[in-house]
Amino acid sequence: MTTTRSRHRGDATPDAHLFPTRPYDLVKEFVLALVGVLVLTIALAWIFSSPDEKAITMADWAAGAPSDVVATATGELAGTTTSAGYGGPYNTNGDGQSLGPLPLQRWAGVRIPVDPSRDLVLTPLSRVSGDPELTAALARYEGATAEQQQGWSSAYADALAAAPDGDPTRVAAGEYGPVPVLAARFLDLARSGGLEGALTSEGTFYGTDATRSLLLLADGAYIEDQARAQNLGGDQWGMMNETGNYPGQPWMWLYTFWYQVPPFSESDNADALVWGLMMLLTLALVLVPFIPGVRSLPRALGVHRLIWRRWYADQQGRNG
Amino acid sequence: MTGPSQPVEDRSWTVRLRSWIGRLVPPGQALPDRQPVYVASWIYVFGVLTLAGFVVVVATGCVLAIGGTTWWHVSALGHFVNSLHLWSTELFFAFMVIHLWGKFFMAAWRGKRALTWMTGAVAFVGSIGTAFTGYLSQSNFDSQWISTQAKDGLNAVGIGAWFNVLDPGQMLTWHIALLPLVVGVLAVWHVVLVRRHGVVPPIDAVAPVDAGPPVDAGPPDGSVVDPGDVVRAG
To answer: How many C-beta atoms lie closer than 10 Å to residue B204's C-beta?
Structure first.
């Protein structure tokens, strides 16, 4: 019978180089694997192609849901949109989420400053020329007190919400100041196709940062309606799904899973909680070799007896 | 510490680096033509399949990079290359997840292989980040939706202040430069560690005593070499 020895204190795993060997062509294995993966990739690409759902433009938004554009612009002025009350990293208008007692979002500070009413609505409108009515409306709005601006905007936002289908043409009469003109001209600007440029090229010729465009788009309901129609909503496992019938990012199933179940699905702090949990689980995955119980699971599960069945059978034959 | 009798050229940084590289894996184990007899299962194929998948992902990504960010929207060839990139990514992850589970069931961190497991696990997480930034760089509806949803999670824990998913320019540079570099370095490190320690023996396996030095190469006839036979004969 073969005598044994341990290589390391507390870990009886022997040196792999002390075992009997057999021929094994690593290079041939890699080349065959490469050819196999390449052929499989080409076949899958040929048969299934890949999705490419065109990006929503502001003109698409204005054509598909004009009332939503008007309501969103008004909401930015009234401070009622998601961006307007977001907090870090865009502004200080909200506390943001906390991970238990740790307000990580607030601690990170305002590193990507966005003042929604100014940056998403008023500044793009101020770049429009040749429209005296708009110029006058902007001057009146800018000349008013913050309280007056808030009063006009909030009143108009409420009136839009009460109007049939949110239709601006069916809003009840009221004290809205220049806000209806601003919102209507904002819709015109979106229709013209000039809004993206006004938002992404702020102060620079090369517009590679879409933060403002995407914040504005996300403040409206249109993009979410489009996404939900394709089963991409947050409560539809949206983060791991893909447009059309494509596999998307299935490796994000666990991250997406938490959003579907309580307490995460019912919490205002869901994002922070899910991220905190996933960071903890990721750390656990990396540290599996050091976690008592978890590192012993493979022996208890016994799958290794299937993987190395020939070795174990051979050893049993030798010892038996 | 270097002794006074050591020649000056032996103390040079170049010699030390060469010596360090030479000691990374045992002699003959960088590209061995033999493996322990217990390396006999289809599960072992998934490690090399993962590497092959990574090569195809990087290669197809490089072709996409030649055409630029919008090429694949307007060209049939570009769209096909994008399809290759997508499906090689899906295969890469499928192979990697099977490889990871296989190594878990083998408790492959045994025998001072914890760092091998850790580099593999971090490479897996890094690959998820790389794929994620790829989805954000598509410049289509999918990118718009994923970025506007993902920002809330990243902002909630403060990461979004530095890693802005709404900035496709930043996401593209992370996707095609920083993250692939990280994953590539981790993959090389991981493979070097595998070659350094060898393939983990079966759970509860024992090695022959006084088996002598590691076997670098076997006989040309391809027969099994058993260092333990010497001990058993004695």
So the answer is: 13
The dihedral formed by the CA atoms of B226, B229, B230 and B232, expressed in degrees to the nearest 10: 150
CA distances to A82, A86, A101, B35, B161 from A106, in Å = 16, 11, 12, 54, 10
Which chain B residue has the Cα nearest residue A207?
A: B169
Neighbours of A73 (CB within 10 A): 32
pTM: 0.90
Which pLDDT does position A3 carry in this prediction? Answer: 34
Chain centroid offset of residue B137 CA: 24
Q: What is the pLDDT of residue B8?
A: 65
A244–chain B Cβ distance below 8 A for any pair: no
Task: Give yes or no for A9 touching B (CB within 8 A).
Answer: no
User: Quick check: A21 and B218 CB within 8 A?
Assistant: yes
| One-letter amino acid for residue B83 of the chain | S
* Residue (of A202, A206, A218, A217) closest to A119 by Cα position: A202
Q: Please tell me the distance from the alpha carbon of residue B65 to that of residue B184, in angstroms, as a whole number.
A: 18
The first and second tokens of residue A119, run together, are 């940056």
Helix axes A270-286, B141-156, angle to 10 degrees: 80
* Coil/strand/helix, residue A255: helix
The residues, ordered by sequence, that sit 6+ positions from A274 with a Cβ below 8 Å of its Cβ are A255, A258, A259, A264, B153
d(CA B120, CA B137): 25
CA gap B104, B51 in Å, rounded:
18
Give CA–CA dist B40/A307, Å, rounded.
8
Is some CB atom of chain B closer than 8 A to the CB atom of A283? no
Whose structure tokens read 């001209």?
Answer: A185
Per-residue pLDDT of chain B (234 residues; tens, 9 = 90+): 445 566 666 789 999 999 999 999 998 889 999 999 999 999 999 999 999 999 999 999 999 999 999 999 999 999 999 999 999 999 999 999 999 999 999 999 999 999 999 999 999 999 999 999 999 999 999 999 999 999 999 999 999 999 999 999 999 999 999 999 999 999 999 999 999 999 999 999 987 654 444 444 344 344 455 444 333 332
Chain B: closest CA distance from residue A135 (Å)? 31
Here the tokens at position A148 are 């007056």
Spacing of C-alpha A82 from chain mean position: 15
